[in-house]
Design a protein that fits this description.
Helix content is 37%, strand content 28%. The strands form 3 sheets. It has a 6-stranded mixed beta sheet with strand order 6-7-8-3-9-10, with helices on both faces. A 4-stranded antiparallel beta sheet has the order 2-1-4-5. It has a 4-stranded antiparallel beta sheet with strand order 12-13-11-14, with helices on one face. The radius of gyration is 24 Å and the shape is elongated. By secondary structure, the chain is α/β, with parallel strands linked by helices. The chain starts with a strand and ends with a helix. The longest helix is centred in the middle third of the chain and has 16 residues. Belongs to the ABC transporter superfamily. This is Nod factor export ATP-binding protein I. One of its GO terms (molecular function) is ATP hydrolysis activity. Keywords: ATP-binding, Nucleotide-binding, Transport.
Amino acid sequence: MKVLEVRGLTKYFNGQKVLDDLNFALNEGEVLGFLGPNGAGKTTTLKIITGLYRPSAGRVFIAGIDAVADPIKTKGLFGVCTQDFTFNAHYSIEQDLYFYARLYGLSRRAAMEKARRALEWAGLLEHRRKNGDHLSGGMRKKILFARAMINDPPLLLLDEPTTGLDVRARWELWEMIRDLKSRGKSILLTTHYLEEAEQLCDRILIIKRGRLVAEGGPGELRQIVDVARLMTVDLNRQLTLEEKEWLCALPGVKNCKSRGTTVEVALDSSPQQVGDLVQEICRRLQPLNISLREASLEEVFLEVTGRED
């Protein structure tokens, strides 16, 4: 089932196109990574989904409801975790969550129960009488997660939820996201941490200048850009121009870059071709060391977003 569907989304600001016929879908129980360089259109897309912006063209459907034509009907179907901490200085975090629950029309008793359950889920019940400004960065993010879940919506929009957190706090939020997925929630996750996307996402979308340029799982994305593996060749000297041209022309080599005495070789070859390639390199260049690894998602991201239009 498609919990979120974006069709032909286009947006202009002052005559400048920031989204260009964007199409994607998020399935039930799926974590979808939404990646792109700064200014690619990720935040604009989220604001259109939540009804803060109207698109210049296109449609957004949440659980089958047209969110552009009737945004009020979709308000209870999604929760949002933003990058910003916004807490009322006069409220405890329990009162804060109670207030958000009441916005959904719940009775006082039901809203207080929702707030306590959200605090228990976030592991913050013992801090319930504290103000949000008195909590650590990791705890504040957990409160934002709890807000997003206060109405138990099927769709969660997480906008760079772990930015600025230390390793432990980030890991704790990863566990919360995995828990939400296990409960069948559909999650659209924007992040600048490529490792985070690789760890958490079932599929990944990469956009550039408002257009979708790549889509798939991490392994599928490696195939899209024809970078299956990366070989690092360490030499006792710098590679000559003639040797670099020879290396780049070998079968199975997509491209090669040299930095000092280290050469990075991007491969699209089969295991058998790699063996032949290693023998050729050893014969001609006599390297100190050769190592082979799969291309990381970061390298795929740079390859995709670095393409010329």
